[in-house]
Amino acid sequence: QVQFVESGGGLVQPGGSLRLSCAASGITVSLYVMGWYRQAPGKQRELVASITSSGATNYADPVKGRFTISRDNARNTVYLQMNSLQPKDTAVYYCNFGITALEKSWGQGTQVTVSS
Length: 116
Hints:
With 116 residues, the chain is mainly β. The protein has no helices and 10 strands. It has strands spanning 3-7, 10-12, 18-25, 34-39, 46-51, 57-59, 67-72, 77-82, 91-97, 110-114. A hairpin with a 6-residue loop joins strand 4 (34-39) and strand 5 (46-51). The chain starts with a strand and ends with a strand.
């Protein structure tokens, strides 16, 4: 089975930073396009960042210039470095495949709260 376990969320002030981790099991992350998604209450889940097997990255406009996606192949882990956080970034953050998510593999996510 494919499983993703997210961690690293928490409560931060506006302008603060967090680094999220996504530990993958059942797949090798270097072989796939991987993505970070987020979902705020009452809103659709949205893809915010992705990284290809070659290391190319893409970002949604609201996070461009502030977030950086990366991976550690030895640890089979994908990261999301989040800087200059804003209250609108408050959401539950999830990782999954970055083109078509595997529905059965959505994890618990990790809560990010940016509070003024």
